[in-house]
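wait is this the right file?? whatever heres the structure
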C-alpha cells in the first residue's frame, strides 16, 4: 500500500519547532509496518529529527545555525528578498528537505527522546507545505 498526502504546517517564526504532533494529526492511520517519508516543498526551511523533551535544545540549535551561517555577509549575491533569505537557503541545504521514519505497530518508530522539527529559517511566519508518502503493509 502506498499513500501520499500534502498538507501545510502553520507558519512559525525563525527557529527550530517541534512539530511531531501536528504532522501526526494530518496523517491517516499508519500501516502495521512501513516507512513514512516527509518532504518540505520550500528552499528556506528544513526537516530534522532531534531532542523532543528539553526546549533548550531548540534554542541552542538556532544559536548554532545563526553563528554557522550569518546574515548580511558581504559576499552574498542573492539579497533582494531580505537579509534572512540567503542564509535560509544555506541552512536548509545543510539540514535537508526530507526525512524517512520507520513505522512499527501503526506508530512512528522514533527513539524515546526524538521528535520531528520544522527548521524555519525566515523571520516572517509562512505556512509550509509538506508531502507525506506512506509505504507499508
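ok assuming it is, sequence goes like this
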Amino acid at each position: 500500500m502506498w499513500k501520499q498526502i500534502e498538507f501545510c504546517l502553520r507558519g512559525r517564526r525563525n527557529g527550530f519547532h517541534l512539530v511531531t504532533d501536528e504532522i501526526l494529526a494530518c496523517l491517516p492511520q499508519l500501516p502495521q509496518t512501513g516507512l513514512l517519508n516527509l518532504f518540505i516543498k520550500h528552499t528556506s526551511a528544513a526537516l530534522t529529527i532531534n531532542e523532543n523533551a528539553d526546549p533548550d535544545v531548540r534554542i541552542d540549535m538556532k544559536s548554532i545555525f545563526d553563528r554557522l551561517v550569518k546574515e548580511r555577509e558581504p559576499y552574498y549575491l542573492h539579497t533582494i528578498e531580505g537579509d534572512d533569505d540567503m542564509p535560509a537557503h544555506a541552512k536548509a541545504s545543510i539540514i535537508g528537505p526530507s526525512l524517512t521514519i520507520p513505522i512499527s505497530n501503526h506508530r512512528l518508530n522514533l527513539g524515546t527522546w526524538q521528535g520531528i522539527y520544522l527548521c524555519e529559517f525566515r523571520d516572517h511566519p509562512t505556512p509550509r507545505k509538506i508531502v507525506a508518502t506512506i509505504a507499508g503493509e
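The CA atoms of residues 16 and 61 lie 7 Å apart. so i think its the right one actually
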